[in-house]
Amino acid sequence: MFTYVKLTQNGVTQLYYVQVEIVAGKLILNDVSGLQTRKLLVEDIRQLDWQVFDEYYGGRRFSFGKGEMSCQVYEAGLAVIDYLYHQLQVAV
Asked: Which domain of life is it from (predicted)?
C-alpha cells in the first residue's frame, strides 16, 4: 500500500511518500519518493509505545510512536488504513 506519512525523530519532522507493509509482526515503511527505494522505518509492532486510529480533516489516520519517534500514516489511497487496522489485529 502506498501513502503519505509524517515522521518525527530527534525533533525533526519530515513528510514522505512510502510503501507500507506489515511482515512477520514488523511495520515497514519504504521511502519510494526518489529513484531508489530505501527502508525508512522498521518497527516491531509489539514494541510500539502507543497506537491510535482517528480522523484527520475528514480522512482516516493511523498514528504510532516509540520513545521520541512518532509517525502519522494518512489515508491517501484505497483501503490503506483498513489494511493497517486488519493487519495490526492479526499481528497483536
From this structure: Bacteria
Are the C-beta atoms of residues 80 and 71 closer than 8 Å to each other? no
Angle at 1 between CA 32 and CA 66, to 5 degrees: 80
Tally DSSP H helices, then E strands, for the chain.
Answer: 1, 7
Q: Which domains does the chain have, with CATH numbers?
A: 2-91 (2.30.29.30)
pLDDT tens across 26-84, in order?
A: 999 999 988 889 999 999 999 999 999 999 998 999 999 999 999 999 998 788 999 99
Residue with cell string 489485529: 89
pTM: 0.88
Cβ atoms of residues 92 and 46 within 8 Å = yes
